[in-house]
Amino acid sequence: MLRVTILLLTFFQPLLAAGDKSMFWTQAVRSDNPPDLYTSKTDVAYPFRWANGHRLSFRNFAKDRPNNVAPYDEPRLFIAVKYVDDDLVWYDSVYSGEYKYICQNEGASTANAPPEPKNEYGFQLTGEMKNNFDDVMGECKNNKQKPIKLDSEEKSNAVRDLCKANDNRIPYYLAMKREKGKSAYKWLDGDDVKNANWAPNQPSKDDKEQCAVFYWEPTQNTILWASSACNTARRVACQKA
From CA 61, how far away is CA 58, in angstroms rounded? Predict the structure, then answer.
């Protein structure tokens, strides 16, 4: 069975939050050399939080992390830490395994929590999974919300800021489709798509990809779009009606 080390965030959160690599537990990690260190936790699509409820004020994720991947039946994720090339790098991982742990004195000072992100458009980016595009669109309607329509730079920037604050790189359906054999997408309300921000080599010319998704690309700090098959199971994302 996987042997891991678990750090109790109730006590050590200020260390990792501040990004201090010289503290005693860093040396302990290096000398013990465990496979993983489990730290902060979250559910898919929601922000990582320390044990005191604070959002992350410091990050040191490995390249292409977090990727927010988890089995449908085990959506809770953790930040795991490894000692790599004289650094402590973070990545997201599904909770599992046996644990040992390192603690810090409870009286240590705590880092200030960053503010909650603004969400003036009422975006709801959830971890709830639906079977296909139609089911996601229907769930928005059932919740008296509407599917996400990024038809302005302001909306795109707003959802970008929300994804960034939550370390959320999950692809979500956009409220638009194209007819089979045609290249142009239209919003579900009939409007033309005028402000697309497609990822490189997107949209695909594959006739099976009639829907589209958006996702946050942290290396560019922007929201990118990509074509998608409409029968792909995805998580629910809506905005206030």
Answer: 10
Backbone angles phi, psi at 200, to 5 degrees: -55, 140
Residues 121, 24 contacting (CB under 8 angstroms): no
Tokens of 217: 């690309």
pLDDT digits (tens, 9 = 90+) for 161-190: 999 999 999 999 999 999 987 789 999 999
Longest dimension (CA), the chain: 65
How many angstroms separate the CA atoms of 235 and 136, rounded? 7
pLDDT one-digit tens code per residue, 80-126: 777 677 777 887 877 665 545 555 555 555 567 788 888 999 999 99
At 137, phi and psi to the nearest 5?
-60, -40
Interstrand relation of 98-102 and 3-7 (parallel, antiparallel or unpaired): parallel
Sign of the C-alpha dihedral, residues 211, 216, 217, 221? Answer: positive
Cβ atoms within 10 Å, residue 228:
23
Q: Give the pTM.
A: 0.79
Handedness of CA 66, 161, 48, 132 (dihedral sign): negative
Backbone φ, ψ for residue 139 (5° rounding): -65, -35
Q: What is the 3-state secondary structure (H, E, C) of 201-237?
A: CCCCCCCCCCEEEEEEECCCCEEEEEEECCCCCEEEE
CA distances from 50 to 5, 9, 164 (A): 17, 6, 17
